[in-house]
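Entry for the shared binder. Reason: the reviewer on the internal report wants the predicted structure included alongside the sequence.
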Amino acid sequence: MSKWIQFPQTVQERSLIKEEFQRKYNLPGVIGCIDCTHIAIVKPAEEEHAFYNRKGYHSLNVQMVCDHNLKIMNINAKFGGATHDSHIWSSSLVEPYMRHLHESGEHVWLLRDSGYPQRPWLMTPILNAPHGSREELYTTRHVQARTCIELLKTRWGCLLRDRVLHYHPNVASKITLACCVLHNISLHAHLPAPSDIPVTTVDDNDDSSTQTTQSTTTENRNELIRGRAMLNYLISRL
């Protein structure tokens, strides 16, 4: 894990990723895409309620961050399927790191779906953007950039919804981590992705249809306002 899954720690590393996102998707300032996916597991004997997700089966809710090349830079596989994406994000080490970069004056951000709160360092799509507008252009490019988890599941079929992991949640978590490491090794070795890509829908990987639970504190309201201002700044650069 420490060798093959690393979040960019230097300005130079982040600059290289920004340049590639700009080149491939015409989105400035992006250093990664963050998403969650449900990895199906058998009904656990303990704390079963923590793993029963809103889609009606038991799972791990796994958060991943990938770069422009679909390389996984961070993974969190310790939460059950009942946990909302936004809670996993707020509990991760990446959230305070991105906050620190922003407060230090480095304007970089991650892309995420609308299941997460808008923040200056976390860009979400604009739902129902007017046709032909810059907001629609931004959202189209935003969606195109977020494909990491789909590719991961095509490489390792045991992570697909129909391939339930018959293991204790802790073991299932380790299997998921191993698949992520092997995924990055495959990219490093330039191995081609499988051609039989399964059809996925928004509901396969997305909690955006569930209302995000947010605190109403003044700090969170201010972060939301600053996040929307940063989003408008990003859109103005397209």
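Summary line for the report: The chain is about 40% helix and 10% strand.
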